[in-house]
Amino acid sequence: MVKKTDYSLFDDVCGFVDEAAEHLDLHPGLLDQIKECNSIYKFNFPLRNNDGSYEIFTGYRIQHSHHKLPVKGGIRFSEQVDEEEVKGLAALMTYKCALVNIPYGGAKGGIRLDPLKYDENQLERITRRYTAELIKKNFIGPAIDVPAPDYGTGAREMAWIVDTFEAFNPELINAKGCVTGKPLSQHGIDGRTEATGQGVFYGIREAVNVEEDMQALGLTKGLRGKKIIVQGLGNVGYYSAKYLSEAGARVIGVAEWNGGIWDETGINIEDLKSYQNENKSYKGYPHGKFIENSGEMLTYECDILIPAALENQITVENADQIKAKIIGEAANGPVTQEAEKILLEKGVVIIPDMYLNAGGVTVSYFEWLKNLSRVSFGKLEKRYDMEKYRKLLGTIENATGEEFTQEERDLLIKGASERDLVLSGLEETMVTAYHDMNNMRKEKKIQSLRTAGFILALKRIAISYLDLGIFP
Ligand code: GLU
Description:
Layout: H1 9-21, H2 28-35, E1 39-48, E2 54-63, E3 71-78, H3 83-99, E4 105-112, H4 120-136, E5 145-149, H5 155-168, H6 195-208, H7 211-217, E6 227-231, H8 235-246, E7 250-256, E8 259-262, H9 269-279, E9 289-291, E10 304-307, E11 326-328, H10 337-345, E12 349-351, H11 353-356, H12 359-373, H13 382-400, H14 406-413, H15 418-443, H16 449-466
Parallel strand pairs: 3-4, 3-5, 6-7, 6-10, 10-11, 11-12
Antiparallel strand pairs: 1-2, 2-4, 7-8, 8-9
Helix pairs in contact: 1-3, 1-16, 3-16, 4-5, 6-8, 6-12, 6-15, 12-15, 15-16
This protein binds glutamic acid.
Glutamic acid is lined by residues 72-74, 148, 150, 180, 332, 357, 360-361, 364.
């Protein structure tokens, strides 16, 4: 993967915002207020290692925008975590939530560490201590700031966070809503694990189903047969690749930091993932060709390139070599602002991160709502609906004198489960936001979907201030 130099994700995000602001008539003070991070918390804390030695970690929680509360965004465990990165990721969360109409301000947190270097016991102590530091400064809580998984963290870490928070807040009835992405046993929600990848799938499906846009790229409408390269087969990359292949697209390349696999006949994603889980590398995988320099794979021939790992992957260094016609930004910030200019000139369509990976925070929102109401979705109405549909089918059968088959009966009578409702809410959110963004692009006669997305997001954020009379 491309190493960081003097690159700043936060500057890039501000640059994108400035481009969008040119299409709006916002007070410059309001624009500055929107762009800046409202609260930055950086702290250091020690861990006693198993051999008795001590190590000091640097943690962050940055709240970009308080225009809506609570603020929301993941927690990242990675060696690349620093203030600029967390600021940029926090800012992206603000625009992402505004674009998909989820009522949160943006935030992000992280600890600078390589999680692979620590055992489970150490990671638990680090996560619990990090949470305690957030509690001390009031940087976490269901009404204040609600973290979630991000690169290097998952449901396990979220379980430690909620457990620590509850221990400090035993009287708080809404305490479970202090974090999302929790395991189901800890009041998580069915479908959160795969939500971001599922959202990437819906987003790309919508994009390739707009016939005139595909014609302009010289591509056919629909996912069937589309050749895809995915960078990163972590949670987001894996589920994106899985759902896209199931819908008929062909994943021909998967690039990981330690090598990639290339197979023009199509990669079996489940099989590759289980090989990766067992062997930690694709070396020796019996199907396809092992590519040592996986960075190069971003420039291979394909229809859709999906960077699903980290920011700063497509830069001025490699942008002019990209052959994909569509880039689906499943990761946050994978294409730099300068690289985007080169790609747009080449006619590449970039489906921006702030839209494409919004499935995670969307389902997080459903989880938070579930925690606040303390009831699973569908629990109250499922049986009632089934009974109602059963009676309706009976009435139709009596009126027509014909019987439904058992299969039809099962399908029509089935009441919605929590998972059904989560998927339907997610699909609705992703479909609506894509067309809002694409229509804005056409209305403003601009090429960049990202600029269109930022225009929509800025408008929605600005209204929160304007309606309070804070800026003219
Ligand atoms: N870390 C994810 C993101 O970047 C999810 C955030 C959340 O669910 O709050 O969007």
